[in-house]
Amino acid sequence: MAILLLLGAVLLPGHSRKPSDQAAVPQAGPSPSPSAAVSVPPLSAQVITIQDQTISPPRLTVRAGTKIVWLQKSSVVQTVTSVTTTVDPKTKKASPAPDGRFASGTLRPGTSYSVTLTQPGIYTYLSTLHPGTTQGTIIVE
Prior knowledge:
Layout: H1 2-11, H2 19-22, E1 46-51, E2 54-56, E3 59-62, E4 66-72, E5 81-87, E6 94-103, E7 112-117, E8 121-126, E9 135-140
């Protein structure tokens, strides 16, 4: 419990300790055993690779708050743009359209783009330059 209070005091922005607070901080001692430790697992970045106009992995499931990083390893420029697919009621043709949730702009070979997805949902994305081949889905739980 003292460790969590200490972490809260250190990590909360705008919180400063007074000299009188320092006496309450426990001295370092032996590390608690893994079963006794109370911690929240960190949200690590998940990497998606764009190479030769393909996405790897093409489908990814992550927790809300996870940072997604696209590494652009293709020899041609790409984009990463979130889209929503609508179906024309007359022609029954499906067509994706940018939905504004995220857009990388032009990614040159050797560059990257990242976004942190905080809302649960299904995020479909594609390269607006290669929409038929470079596309993927991220499921945020």
